[in-house]
Amino acid sequence: MATKKKKKTAATTKKTAPKRRKKVEKKKSKGASTAKAKTAQKKASKPAKKSAQKVAKKSTAKKSATKSSPQKAAKKAPAKRGAARKGAAKKGAKKTAATTPATATLVQHVFVAATPAQVFRALTDPTEHGAFTGTVVTGLPVEGGTFTASSGYIQGTFEKLEQDKLIVQSWRTTEWPHGAGASRLEIALEDAGDGTELTMTHSEVPTSQAESYRQGWIDYYWTPLRAHFSSKG
């Protein structure tokens, strides 16, 4: 009987052994597949994390760039404005240089057979001035006073007056070139004993008209002025 039981036990053991092996193998295979799945998940999660980190870094960089770009633009804006102003200033200077006419200075010396007081009065008093030029003359002979001569052809301002010695005027005519400033007329009177030595310095005269005014002073002022006093004897 004992031998039969042993034989049954051995047979049973033989039958169950393959089953157990299969179960163990299944467990091992399941464990291996689970481990593989976990490893795959870890590997998959790592690139995902890395890509997420990269995206986060990029978004942060973009945000910092967007923040810094207005600041950079704000910094660049004054520089651009300054450059634009400099460019505009240079253009304005070029235009001014192009539109401002060149000027010349006229100097003439005249002897008049009259005292410095008489000559001074003839050149500043509207009535006396009109008498020797034969034209309409207006104005007030004081510093800052305006005047017109040659029936409105000449206009200006008395800038400085030294009685019987010096007359300084801003001076221009109705034919003055566009863009040209007023000229400066200075007449100095010096007692020469038997008359007056008159020195005229007419500066800042447009070059294009300088020759015309040079002759005009002789023809319309000095010649009739000398004739005016010679006629008085």
Topology:
Blueprint: H1 2-99, E1 103-112, H2 116-124, H3 126-133, E2 138-139, E3 146-149, E4 154-162, E5 166-173, E6 183-191, E7 196-206, H4 207-232
Antiparallel strand pairs: 1-7, 2-3, 3-4, 4-5, 5-6, 6-7
Helix pairs in contact: 2-3
Structural features:
alpha+beta, 233 residues, seven-stranded antiparallel β-sheet, Alpha-D-Glucose-1,6-Bisphosphate, Chain A, domain 4, single chain, 4 helices
Compact overview of the structure:
With 233 residues, the protein is of the alpha+beta class.
Written account of the structure:
By secondary structure, this protein is α+β, with helices and mostly antiparallel strands. It has a domain of 131 residues: Alpha-D-Glucose-1,6-Bisphosphate, Chain A, domain 4, CATH 3.30.530. The protein is 61% helix and 23% strand. The protein has a seven-stranded antiparallel β-sheet, covered by helices on one side. A hairpin with a 4-residue loop joins strand 6 and strand 7. Helix 2 crosses helix 3. It is elongated. The protein starts with a helix and ends with a helix. The model has no long low-confidence stretch (mean pLDDT 79).
